[in-house]
Amino acid sequence: MTEPSPPIERILIARDEEDLRNQASLDVLQQALGRYSIEEVDDIAQADAMVALGGDGAFLHAARRYDYAPVPMTGINAGTLGYYMSTPPDPASIDYMVRNLATGDYHIHNLPLLELKRLGGELVRLAANDIVIRADGFQAFKAGLVISGTQFEHFTGSELVFSTPQGSSGESLAYGGPFLREGLPIWSVVPGAGHHSKDFYSLISSMVLGAEDDVVVEVKEANRRPFAIGTDGAKVTDWSQQEAAFRVAMSQEKSIQRIRLNNNSYLQDVSRIFRGRR
Predict the structure, then answer these.
(1) Domains of the chain, earliest start first
(2) Beta bridge partners of 245
(3) Which end of the chain is more exposed for a tag (fewer CB within 10 A), N or C?
(4) Count of alpha carbons within 13 angstroms of residue 88, beta-carbon side
(5) Does the annotation count 199 as an active-site position?
(6) What angle do CA 253, 256, 260 make, to 5 degrees?
(7) Which residues of the chain fall below pLDDT 70?
(8) What is the bridge-based pairing of β-strands 73-77 and 49-54?
């Protein structure tokens, strides 16, 4: 039997003050906090939970801003799809969310993060959705792959996508990658437009890896085949073309604790993604 969740007594609200779409949701949220005697705080160290206002980008920005602090998160959607933002912006939905937080009527999914590291061990970025390495021009991208210490094969194609379960509905899905169940300690490596001939051999399908696995990518011919690396849709700018090898793995130290209300399931979100419903 699942242990009951603790009632939330203090909430930090994360928002972009310049985004006027959030003002109406903020007013309704603050009124609901007052009705259920939940205190709004500004210090993440004092918060029992964090509520982000906006779209999925606002949710991920808030997680990064507070360095993926071990504080449960949820969100009120003012964007389009809103995978992370489970609560619609209408007053009834916001009231339902706050009431359930106040009574502990919710559960938490632990969302793994991927880490991009230099081979010397220096952390470059954490990614909640995906890490993408691709050709930064019109030539194919070529790389060798070492998976958990085993020389696996070479890859030639457009890009490689490393995806978390919660990110598996994005870039990796576009290349036929698997839809991974949210909350599982797994991740995937998905080839994008791999070349297959007598001269080129590449991954022909996606691979699903576990929490203890890692992948070392050794870029080939980097001096004449420029490449780019992105995390969660943003280009990694502090990366030199001379750094032609890096390591991707699941973070063992950081994660996102996502709050799910009992009227919102992972499969309902999957349905919205495929059917285009909010």
Answers:
(1) 10-105+262-275 (3.40.50.10330), 113-253 (2.60.200.30)
(2) 218
(3) N
(4) 9
(5) no
(6) 145
(7) 1-2, 80-81, 196-204, 272-278
(8) parallel
